[in-house]
Structures are given as C-alpha cells and as structure tokens.
Amino acid sequence: MQDNIIIANADDTPSAASWQRQLSRAVRDPQTLCERLGLGSLWQAGAHTGHALFETCVPEAFLARIKPHDPNDPLLRQVLPLSNEALETPGFVSDPLAEAEHRPARGLIHKYHGRVLLIASPNCAVNCRYCFRRHFPYADNAPSRAQWQEALNYLRADESIREAIFSGGDPLAGSDRQLAWLVGELEGIAHLKRLRIHTRLPVVIPDRVDDALLGWLGQARLQTVMVLHINHAQEIDRAVIEACARLQQAGVTLLNQSVLLRGVNDDVDTLAALSERLFDARVLPYYLHVLDPVAGAAHFDVSDDEARELVAGLRQQLPGFLMPRLVREIPGEASKTPL
Ligand SMILES: *Cc1c(COP(=O)(O)O)cnc(C)c1O
Ligand code: SF4
C-alpha cells in the first residue's frame, strides 16, 4: 500500500518544472479515472476495491493515449484498478523476488555480478497494476544524502562493480538536484563504467526529458544507458518519439523492457507492432519479462508455454535485432533466466 507515501517531487507551484506540475495533477482517484473514460458503475466499484490495495495514479499525458469507452483498451488495462486484485491466488505473494534478502545497504540491491540496483526514488509517475513492487516497503528505502554514504561506500569497496543501475519506484521521479548529486558521487568511483536508468517516466510524461535532466545526463563521464518500460505500441506517440530523440542526442543508448500481460500484449501481432514502433523511436527491445507472481496481479498471467509459443511466432515476423529476450526472474539465480 502506498497511501502513506508523500509524492516528494510532485510540485504544483509556478516555479516547478512542467513535468512536476503534470505529476502533481495526475489522476489519483479511481472515480475520476472511470468518469473521464466513460466507464460505468460496474467498473467504478471494482476500481475502488483495487485502489484500496494499491492507489491509482495516471498522468494526463498517458490518459490522453487511452481510448474512451473501451474497458479493454491495452493502456487502460495497465492502470485501471480492478476487483480481481483482491483475489488470493496460490503462489502469488507480496515479495516475489525475495529482494529483502539482498540489501547490503539502504537503497541498494546487489544480486548479480558487476551491477547493483540503487533505489534512487521511491515514487512512480504511474501505478501499473501488475507491478511486482506494489507491496514494496518504499518508505524504508528512500535514503537521504547522509544515508546514501553507506551504499556509496559499498560501491567504492567492491571493484567488481562496473555498472550502477538507478531503479525505484521510478528514479526519474526524483529531483534533478538529487539525481545530479548522486551521479556526481558515482563518477568519483573509478571502477564504475556505466550508469543505467530503468524508467517509465519519459513514456508517461515525455516532458520529463527537459533541459535540467539532459544537463546532468549528457555531461556524465559514465556511459549512459536508459531502459524504458513500454508494453504496447499505442504508448508511443509523437511526444515519446521526440523525448527519445532528445535522449539520443545527449548520447544515451535506449533499450526497452516489457512485461507480457494477459489482455494487453499477449498476441504475436501486438508484440510485433510494439517492436516496430520502438524502432520508429530508435529504441531496441531488450527484455520481455513473464509476470512476477505478485499478489493482486494473477489476472495478467500468461503461462510459460504460451509465452514460448508467442515468442516463437514473433521470431517468424521480425528481424533478430527487434526480438526481445523472453526471461523470468527467479530468486537466487545469478541472472535473469531465459525461458
Ligand atoms: C534485473 C536486475 C539487474 C539487471 O540485470 P541485467 O540482466 O543486467 O539487465 C540487476 N540487478 C537486479 C537486482 C535486477 O533485478
Ligand atoms: S513504473 Fe515501474 S516500478 Fe512504477 S508502478 Fe509501473 S512497473 Fe512498477
């Protein structure tokens, strides 16, 4: 439950950046979401049930890409709370990745060789109903500058670490001041070569890619990689393509990860269209994740056999460089596991 979390960088004052105002004005009320999209009382009741478990959050820029009056719209399904979220399903648990066991310092998760995750911001700009972090105790994982020192010391001490990965929440929900400071600290660590940012923000609020962001990102000594999170071609509009172009001009390599979701992208043509559309924005597909078994998201599940069949069909349609790698995250494994 995220109801207690203060959206620290959502800021509606006139001096705030455009993206911060957009974040502070995101639709956070299930009733409003349904009314705006012309969904009737049946959907509204379910939305209240789901919202009580994991709050609604949909920025206007994303809402604008949802077709009204269509409860099956693939973008809507990612963000609309449903009564199904209250169902208990065996095997679907609150911490499916057992991340709590891999935190050597506050805000830091080290599971794989050579790379670590830093929880650079506990907040998100959109709440995806299938999210494996929907039960994540974020309030315990948003370090202050002083508290970052422990994580930074851990990175300084382990020369096998080549890559720092900003994760979250969504790291780009953090302020540029805080992110620029953290990148500055990382740049002082000689054995670090790469900065990777896992984010959905340039997709849901493309104005996040503004001069302030490009300032610290474009000047970094570290090679920068951004892994976007897009599940359907309809998410990529003109504004997203332009945001991607600005990132590329700043020297950022762009990749995408998707989650295979029942009712959103669980057919070959939809996945092929996504890869094609990503390449329109000059983004390469990286991972296609099968769903992590998180409580409240079982209705999105696609079986491993069906996932393999879909990917086999996709391979017959696409050039190799537009094929995402189908993977699952298995707690205790040394990498993502190919299916
Ligand atoms: C997914 C993940 C990574 C990154 O894995 P890659 O295969 O390099 O993309 C790193 N650390 C953790 C904890 C992860 O879950
Ligand atoms: S943006 Fe990412 S971390 Fe945030 S709710 Fe969506 S999937 Fe989860």
TrEMBL record:
Signal peptide: none annotated. Residues 110-333 form the Radical SAM core domain. It catalyses: L-lysine = D-beta-lysine. Belongs to the radical SAM superfamily. KamA family. GO terms for molecular function: 4 iron, 4 sulfur cluster binding; isomerase activity; metal ion binding. Its cofactor is [4Fe-4S] cluster; pyridoxal 5'-phosphate. The keyword Cell division does not apply. The modification N6-(pyridoxal phosphate)lysine is found at residue 336. InterPro entries: Aldolase_TIM, EpmB, Lys_aminomutase/Glu_NH3_mut, rSAM, rSAM_sf. Gene3D superfamilies: Aldolase class I. [4Fe-4S] cluster binds at residues 124, 128, 131. This is L-lysine 2,3-aminomutase. The keyword Lyase does not apply. Keywords: 4Fe-4S, Iron, Iron-sulfur, Isomerase, Metal-binding, Pyridoxal phosphate, S-adenosyl-L-methionine. Pfam families: Radical_SAM (PF04055).
